[in-house]
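Reopening this one. Same input as before:
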Amino acid sequence: MPQLKIAAVLAVAILLQLSLREVWAPLSYIDFPLIVVVYIALQRHAWQALMVATIAGLAVDAASGGLIGAGGFSKTLTAYLVFLAATRVNLENTLLRIPVFAAATLVDSAIYVFWHRSLGYPPSAPFVQTMSYRLIGTTIAGTAAIYLLDLLFTEQARQRRSFKSRRKGARRVR
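Same output, byte for byte:
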């Protein structure tokens, strides 16, 4: 059942990403699929986060007419890095998730632009300006979306919060 919820949320995020730029141009700077990817990676579901990131990136790339695969690769690598950080550091606090969204947006944008420039695709807008707008928009929208997604996936969030005190001192041994 959680996979159906994730698929539905991802489909809505992709539709919002592709359609809201027609409504109002500044809304195109909010990366809705990245918000879903970061949220799932913060839940410590590695394979789900990687699969959602790949599907989201490829779907947006295919529909937007850009370099197919650059968005999928950047979102997948971002999901892996967020998952790695979430397993090493306790990121249950909302204030700690704000810099995670900011860092994820910066990493995603940097990798995406790197692949475009290295393969000879001209930039459509100035890099720093676009990344700054994406950073602000995605971080604010992602912080607000955390609450909505926690309500949707409430059972897992409630269980995680109940065992929060037990995980505080525990260290992972490999």
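So the earlier flakiness isn't reproducible anymore. For the record, The two ends are 31 Å apart (CA to CA).
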